[in-house]
UniProtKB/TrEMBL annotation:
A Pfam entry, by short name: DUF3696
Origin organism lineage: Bacteria, Bacillati, Cyanobacteriota, Cyanophyceae, Oscillatoriophycideae
Residue ranges of every copy of the ATPase AAA-type core domain listed in the record: 26-300
Transmembrane parts of this sequence: none
Signal peptide extent: none
GO molecular function, one term: ATP binding
Domain of life per record: Bacteria
Domain DUF3696: 311-363
Protein name: DUF3696 domain-containing protein
PANTHER family hit by this protein: ATP/GTP PHOSPHATASE (PTHR43581), EXCINUCLEASE ATPASE SUBUNIT (PTHR43581:SF2)
Amino acid sequence: MIHLLRLQNFKCFEDLSLEFRPLTLFSGLNSTGKSSVLQSLLLLRQSYQQDLLPETGLALNGDLVCLGTAQDTLFEGAKEDEISFDLILADGREGIWRFNYNREADVLALAYDVISADIYESSLFNDNFHYLQAERIGPRTSFEISDFQVRQHRQLGAKGEYTAYFLSIFGNKDITKKALSHPQAMSLSLKNQVEAWMGEVSPGTRIEIASNSGMDLVSLRYSFGISNDYRATNVGFGITYTLPILVAALSSSAGTLILIENPEAHLHPKGQSKMGELLALAASCGVQVVIETHSDHVLNGIRLAVHDGKLNPEDVQLHYFQRQEKEGQAFTEVVSPHIDRNGRIDKWPDGFFDEWDKSLEALLEPAGE
């Protein structure tokens, strides 16, 4: 489990240190660096998967992240042509990677590293990992099959493209974390649990999956109660968009790292709140969940989970990214509010999920003639 991440001269950050806990939430205005933090972790994983770490350099472009050129990753005001990543895990293992930037060749080469012997056995680098990007796979008439990704590595794909196939293979297996069990589920099987939690988004949803191994495709259809089943393309967009998150949270074992961008996408307010609750429950079961979100409903779902005693407040870390200016130079400042046992937050910096209050105050003012 990640405890601390420090970035130096990476993208918009000259020097940033962030603490992580079992559930870590990033929020803030657009283009303030939230995604860059996630990209730093993905960059390390991607570079390891492409066999550039621990010996060579960084894989800037791949299946997990595409950052362009080396110059694109170097902090604009860097005083030295060097990018560094420091990663400290909760068990004390540490990795420090330094990369020199060659301006003539526009490449980043590993200058040196100081790492614990088994750092590459942690969840950031092994199969106990899921990353679901903001642009996930929406409704399709068919989805990909990959035995390599699903059967061998139990991956859903960064866009959730293998979720339907994952359910077809593992849907009948029971989830291992009973704290995640939905009270309305027919059994502990992954498929039944996914359907029950999906019911918070769209009541009565049932999932039907059919594989066509000859074409390496799998179809996904939905039914509601006693209705006929429907193609995914004829059902609300949010159901298919949410499916990978539910599967990742419910199927992951303790020690898994899950990175999720915009879990609220295409969900109504109640669904967003229930998504926050589910991810909080996953964090309470030993899964480390890192969320980037713009949704106050997701945050409130987490707060309610803390209030109801389902998640320890010490297991939640909030980071709010805001843009500041000093001597004509814009920079990102991170404010980290805390949640108490009652689910209350100790400070609300300007812009931190306060738009509803601002709009309400404006509406309470008499309208001008």
